[in-house]
Amino acid sequence: MKTVLRLFAESYSAGDVQIRFRPSFFPFTEPSVEVDMLWHGGDRWVEMGARGWLIPTSFEPWVTTPRP
After folding, report:
1. Cβ(8)–Cβ(35) under 8 Å?
2. Over its length of 68 residues, how does the chain's per-residue pLDDT go in tens digits?
3. 3-class SS at 34?
4. Cα(28)–Cα(58) distance, rounded to whole angstroms?
5. Which residues does 59 contact at the CB level (< 8 Å), separation at least 6?
6. Inter-residue contact 68 to 47 (CB < 8 Å)
7. β-pairing, 17-26 with 46-54?
8. Sign of the CA dihedral with 40 first, then 43, 44, and 50 last
9. Whole-prediction pTM
């Protein structure tokens, strides 16, 4: 996953980019990280998104049983 996101960031910004992964918390994924990128020698990080493995039980409140 890290390689794919790094390649995406490099192609999006013409190669002059750094990315970082920060641990985070989301109630529906575990573990969770936020992905930021810094490009063209900037001094501010821009969030690309968040990633994590989905916890299957997070869908339980929306699961309905089929009617007979």
Report:
1. no
2. 778 888 888 887 776 788 888 998 888 888 888 988 887 777 888 888 888 888 888 777 777 766 66
3. strand
4. 5
5. none
6. no
7. unpaired
8. positive
9. 0.64
